[in-house]
Amino acid sequence: MQRPPTLAALACLAALPLAACTGEAKDTEPPSTPAGVTAQAGSATSVHVMWDTSSDNKAVTGYEVYENDSRVTTLPGTKRMVDVDRLRPNTAYRFTVRARDAAGNLSRPSAPISVTTPAQAPDDRTPPTRPTAVRGTTDGPRAVTLMWSRSADDAGVTSYDIYQEDSRVHSVPGTRTTTRVTGLRPGTVYTFTVRARDAAENSSPDSSPVDLTTPPALGDKAPNTAPTSLRAVARKGAIDLSWTPPRTGGPVREHQLYLNGSLATTIVWGAEPPAGTATYTMTVTDAPGTRYSVKLRAKLPDGRWGDFSAQRTVVVT
Fold it and tell me: Of 21, 30, 48, 167, which residue is most buried, by most CB within 10 angstroms?
C-alpha cells in the first residue's frame, strides 16, 4: 500500500523552485560592480589594468577583464591588476572588469576605461634613469603614500612601476611622481622600490628602497619585533650584512636568514649575542649579476619567531 507523503516531504516539494531539499538556498546574488578601474599604457604593446576589490554575500572568487566586450583574461579573486600584452602600438582600447563568485554569478561590467598605447620607439634599447629621492608616509594601518623624483629617458617615460619585495604592486603614468598603495596589513614593515619604464619596455634600475611600517590596528599594542636598519653589501665572493636586533626584553641569540623568500640559514650566537649592531658575512659562489633578496627575523626570548625585517636586494659582483 502506498503511503501518503509526510509533512516534511510536502514542504520540500512546495519549496523546490526556490531552494533544494537540503534547506540551502541557491546563491543567485552577483558580486558588486568593480570600482576604481584604471588602465595605463605600460609600453607600446601593453596596458596595465587595476581595480578595487568587489564584495559578495559569499565571496568573490575571480575577476574577468574585457576589451571592447571581449574577455581577454580571467584572474583569481585575490588579484586586482593585470598586464594585457600583445596589443598594437598607437591604438585606442577600452577595458571593463567584472567580478565572479563561486556560484558563477557575474557582476555588472565596470565603467569602461579608455587608453591609447604610444607609438613604438624604433630600436630603443636605452632604459630610463633610476628614480631618485623615493620617500613615503603611512596613511593609517592599511595604506601608504609614496613620492619620488622624475626619471629621464631618450624617448620618454611611459610609466612608473611600484615594487614591494620584488613584486610589482602598482603602476602609474609616467607623468606622475606620487601614488597611494592600499590593502596593507597593520603593524607590518614594508619595503618599496620604484622603476621607470619606457614605451619599448625598457625598465630602469631599482630606486633606493624606502621602508615604511604601518601603525598597529586600534587596540593592538604588541611591540614590533622586526630587526631594523638592515644593510646588504656585495663584494667578490661574499655578501656582508648588518642590522639592529629588535628590543625584546631579553637577548636575541638566533636569526633566520631568508634569500629570495626561502630560508637559507639560521645564524646562532653563543652566550653573548652582539650588543647593538649585528653582522654576518655570507659566502656566495654564484655568477656575477645574480640577484638576491635578503631579509631576517629574530628568535624571541619566548621561543617564537618575530616579524621579518625590511627586505634588501643585492647583486653579486
Answer: 48
d(C-alpha 251, C-alpha 287), whole Å: 37
Residue pair 177/223 in contact (Cβ under 8 Å)? The answer is no
> Which cell numbers hold the place of 57?
554575500
> What is the rounded average pLDDT of the residues 162-188?
87
Residue 143 reports pLDDT greater than 80: yes
Q: How far is CA 101 from CA 23, 80, 108, 163, 237, in A?
A: 21, 15, 12, 29, 51
To the question of pTM greater than 0.70 for the whole model, the response is: no
Q: Determine the length of the chain.
A: 317
The answer to whether the beta carbons of residues 194 and 160 sit under 8 Å apart is yes
- Spatial separation of the C-alpha atoms in residues 119 and 4, rounded to whole Å: 77
Identify the H or E element spanning 10.
Answer: helix 7-15
Radius of gyration of the CA atoms of the chain, in A? 26
Are 277 and 261 in contact by the 8 Å Cβ rule? The answer is no
